Each structure stands twice: as structure tokens, then as C-alpha cells.
Amino acid sequence: MYVDQASAQELKAQLVDLESQYSDILAAKLNLDLTRGKPSGSQLDLSNGLDGILAGSYKAEGGDDCRNYGGLDGLAEAKALFSQVLGVKPSETLIGGNASLTLMFQSVVFTHLFGARGPGSAWSAEGEIKFLCPVPGYDRHFGICEELGIKMIPVAMDENGPVMDEVEALVKSDPCIKGIWCVPRFSNPSGIVYSDEVVDRIAQLGRIAGANFRVMWDNAYAIHALHDDAPVLANLMDVARQHGTEDSVLIFGSTSKVTFAGAGLAFMGASEENLKHFKKHLGMCTIGPDKVNQLRHVKFFGDYSGLMAHMNKHAELLRPRFDAVLEHLDAGFAESDLGCWTVPEGGYFVSFDARPGLAREIVRLAAEAGVKLTPAGATYPYGKDPEDKNIRLAPSFPSLADINKTMEVFVLCVKLASVRQKLNS
Predict the structure, then answer these.
(1) Range of 106's domain?
(2) Which residues have CB under 8 Å from 224's CB, separation 6+?
(3) CA-wise closest residue to 290 among 258, 255, 257
(4) Which end of the chain has fewer CB atoms within 10 angstroms, the N or the C?
């Protein structure tokens, strides 16, 4: 369907057919949800072996009792394992609670209020603070900035990652820009993997930015490939070390989509100097993390190869769901001018761009038909997509049958909104 090439008469005939199909769907009273990238029950079941794995033995390798207080930065054996996910040294690793979002929020709050290097280095003492936000991006990153009154500046993404000419020009021109949010492998929502050149240029931002600039490297999908030959991400910390900018880098990850989403582990990678300052403030709000959970994760995986074998099981469950979404998009729009979409090789999302001005209407039509989609605008700062075109699709949680039904409704809503828009233009 090429609406730009169709005559008014052809469009009106299509509209009658589409509205008839839409009426049938309304009558079906569906209740389907494609909003958030949660693991399915089958994925959660992969980690049921965590339950009882310690069999009453709570001693860490060093002999400490994991049931007791202490160990602010986590168990040594947990740091040894998950530092490999982060791409840093164990001495540059902190293991936290169950949510990397908490570590990210704490990192921004601590630096904003107390400074990266103690008194006098607080961002809040410098006036208006700004962050660069590659778009489309992750709404919870934007929420952290909005909560703290940090101004967000959208920057464009292409197939290689953030458009670095734009990023570098902004950073050079404004010392009040103190950070950039990045989801570098299988980016949320586009699925892009940052190129080696982009990683290298991001690593050098600490040289040209204002004081205490931080790259917030949320590598949430570092090990979430759908295929064995998925693109590999360059190691940011290694590259930053080459440029002498390792203090400008904060790396985050978790097992939220690896084991139990609500009872996993979060981890942070940073230079030893950065960790020293972070732990000083962290020690004011906690005595220590859940080391029992850390120990059972280490016992469950054994080593990094055990972790990757576990991730292959996730991929087997996720591939059919992603394939179903892409098959519906191909069948519905391959021969049309109604939209374009990404074909991710990992992560949890497919990013769809409708014709400008239609995302909110498509989401509304889907909601009326009983299909919940991520709110239009969620992938942009302040919930404002300037072209009102991006929609994030999250196929991990629903059953395959529900995904197929959801995508039938989605394709229909895109077509219906597009034809109506063209006829009204």
C-alpha cells in the first residue's frame, strides 16, 4: 500500500475495508499487552534452579558468612564473574541490589549533590546542568534527568549509534553538558550496536567536555544476542584507558533479564577512583547488598561460560517472538510507504517509525481495540517525539499466539491511521 501514489478514490475504498476490519476487532474485545520488555514466564523458569541451590551453605570463598552485614561492593567471586560482562577488572566492579537503574540513579544523584571528586565538584553548584540523550532512547534514563531537573538535549542516532559530529559539537560548546546516556549494544529501542568508531569517539568525550563529564554506559543487553554471529561491541573501558579518560566512564549492567527480573543482581563498572567516591556515599544509605543472592547466582552459573550457555536458552525462547513481529511487519509494509523498522540481532525491542504525525493516533487506535502499546513519545525526553512517529514494540513477554494477534491489530491500526491522514491532508 503506497498511500502517496493512490488516488483519492482508491484511498476511500481502502478506508471502507480497513474500518470494517477495525470494527470486527473492536467487537472481539481483546485484552493484549505489548508495552514493556519483561521476560516471559518461560524465561524466568530457566532460573528456577536458584531456589535452594545453596543448600544451607552461606560461606563465600573468603570464608565470610553471606547472611551477615558488610561487603559494600559485593562478593569477590561475584565481581570476578560479572566484571566480564561489564568489560572491566574485578577491582573496578561493584555488585549492588537487583536493579541497575538504582545504581544509575545513585550515580547521578551523588555526582549532582556531592560531586565526582568531593566538595566543590558537585554538578548542582554549576547552575543549569544538561545531559545528551540519543533518540529514540530509554524512558527511564530520561526520567532520572527529569526528576533531578537536569535539562535533556536530544541527539540523533543512525545505524552506527549516536551521531558523533553532533555530540562532539555540543559537548565542546557547552561545559554545562555533564553526561550522555548510552545503551550501546542492542540499543533500546532500536537494537543498534554502536560501531567501533563511535565507541572510540565516545571514549574521547572526557577530553573535550566540561569538568566531571560522565558517559552513562547502560549496557543492559550486553549478553542478550539472538544469534551467535550478532555484532560485538568494542570494550569502552579498554578504549577509554588508551585515551586516559577512564574516570569519565560509568558502566552498568544487571541480570534483570538473565535470571529473575525482580530478584537478580545489578553491577557497575568504573575506575577505582570513581568507585572510591561512589562507595563513600553509598555507605551512607546501606550497610551492604544481598550477598546471599550474589552467592547463589555465582553457584548457579559457575563461570562465564555457564552464564553464556544460560543466555543461549533465552535466545531460543526469544527468537520466535521477534521473528513473528518482523514477519507481520514485512507482510504488512514491505511494499508500502507506511513505515520502517529495525531488525535487531539482540536486546528486547523492535523500533517502528510510522509516517510523521501518526504515532499517538496508532497507539490510541490500538488501545481502543484492546491492544496496549508503549505510549507514543516515551522514547524521547519529556515524552515529546517531535515528529510523532516512533513506536517501541516489546515482544518478549506475551505468548506467541498473543504476539501474532497483537501484530495483526498493530498493522491494521497503522494502515487505518495512514489512510485517514492522507485523505485529510
Answers:
(1) 60-302
(2) 185, 186, 257, 311, 314, 315, 346, 347, 348
(3) 255
(4) C
* Measured distance CA(134)–CA(178) in Å, rounded: 14
Q: CB–CB of 241/283 below 8 Å?
A: no
- SS3 of 114, please? coil
Q: Which residues contact 306 (CB under 8 A, 6 or more apart)?
A: 300
Please write the tens of the pLDDT for every residue from 187-240.
999 999 999 999 999 999 999 999 999 999 999 999 999 999 999 999 999 999
C-alpha cell at 225: 544476542
What is the model's pLDDT at position 2?
87
The length of the chain in residues reads 425
Domain end, chosen from 259, 278, 302, is at 302
Same domain, 405 and 259: no
Q: Do residues 138 and 104 touch, judged by C-beta distance below 8 A?
A: no
CA–CA distance, 226 with 233 (Å, rounded to integer): 15
Helix (H) or strand (E) holding 16: helix 8-28
Among 150, 116, 149, 147, residue whose Cα is nearest residue 133: 150
Task: Give the three-class secondary structure for 410.
Answer: helix
CATH number at residue 365: 3.90.1150.10
Average pLDDT over residues 306-325: 98
Is the pLDDT confidence value at 1 over 80?
A: no
The three cell numbers locating residue 91: 577491582
